[in-house]
Amino acid sequence: MDQRPRRVTINDIAAATGFAASTVSRALSRPGRVNAVTRDAITQVARSLSYVPNTHARALTSGRTETVAVLVSDVTNPFYFGLIRGTQHQLKAAGYAHLLIDSENSGGLESHMLTKMRQSIDGAILAASRLPDRLLAALAAELPIVAINRNVHGVPSVLIDSPSGVAQATEHLISLGHREIAYLSGPENSWANAARWRALVTTAARHGLPVRRLGPFPADRMNGSAAADALINTNVTACITFNDLLAIGVLARLHERGVNVPGQISIVGCDDIFGADFCHPTLTTLTAPIEQAGQVAVSMLLTRLHEGAPTTRQSIVLPTHLTVRDSTGPAPD
Q1: What is the pLDDT of residue 25?
Q2: How far is CA 142 from CA 23, 49, 95, 122, 137, in A?
Q3: Alpha carbon of 120 to those of 216, 243, 332: distances in Å?
Q4: Contact status, residue 213 vs residue 183, Cβ threshold 8 Å
Q5: I need a labelling partner for 315 at 20 to 30 A (CA). Which of 47, 191, 220, 229 fits?
Q6: Of 2.60.40.1180, 3.30.1490.110, 3.30.70.20, 3.40.50.2300, which CATH number belongs to 67-160+290-318?
């Protein structure tokens, strides 16, 4: 026999209060449409009976699920830890459930999951989306979304200004006497990857200096070994990597091969993830307000959901800055 307790329903609250079930329903789902005395009496009884709203039934009547999907390209990347925390805290405060989806760096999987979950979510936060611009814009026309680190016309977005951070890093390396700098490229379908490369090229060109692009490399620690081997085969004395995971892998491989950092080559990462200041040598990197990016994205999305119209702010840019540690130093003589 099923021993689970029976769920308390709106009819139970109606019986306990003497109000009609329709009045109870309005008091709990649309409190502004019920006078304060009635509303208070109903909510007090609902609490005493431990009433839990049936979210599925509410979704059928209101068209809202009070659930937001947050898609990240690689849930194992520490870069996303702060972002996930920021989105979750902001959604929880607003009474929304947080559905986390790992798109595995695949635009196809991203599109498939959003299509599959369309009836179960009110909107989505897409972090580092791998969808082509055209498909991302089409999606934004059908589903309330906010993109993080994607700049597509018609798609509300939160941009972490890593290109300006790369410009700072380039100036830093040039000030240390480095005259040829390499970029260790990340995934080709990453918007941020292309933006960082352009920033390096533009800044170096102002000084009349050449730059080299190596890769692309999968953006994880394991592939830092291949990136480091490619780097050793060049004459550059400094490099900027797509992200910290790749940079930390490069540091480990250079140590294995007896290459001194920063004595022979300087290394700069991006994102300032947890562990960037624990590796040896500690990593010079771009520090970004990652948790804040998640919070801002949720605020933009909820504005869209509550007002029923696109947010007036189509793009918000959050600044980055260079954090100098031990992995960069003067160019070798």
Answers
A1: 80
A2: 34, 40, 23, 11, 9
A3: 36, 33, 58
A4: yes
A5: 220
A6: 3.40.50.2300
CB atoms within 10 A of CB 281: 17
Question: Where would I find the H helices in the chain?
Answer: 10-17, 21-29, 36-48, 55-62, 79-93, 107-116, 133-142, 162-175, 191-206, 224-232, 244-256, 290-307
Q: Tell me the CATH number of domain 162-288, given options 3.40.50.1820, 3.40.50.300, 3.90.1300.10, 3.40.50.2300.
A: 3.40.50.2300
CA distance 161 to 297: 15
Give tens-digit pLDDT for 57-106: 555 445 578 899 999 999 999 999 999 999 999 998 888 899 999 999 89
Q: Is the pLDDT of residue 229 over 90?
A: yes
pLDDT for 251 beyond 60: yes
Rounded CA-CA distance 38/211 in Å is 71
d(CA 185, CA 178): 19
Which structure tokens are listed for 237? 């004395």
- Amino acid type, 127: A
The pLDDT tens digits of the residues spanning 134-167 come to: 999 999 988 999 999 999 988 999 999 999 999 9
Contacts of 234 (CB under 8 A, 6+ apart): 180, 182, 212, 214
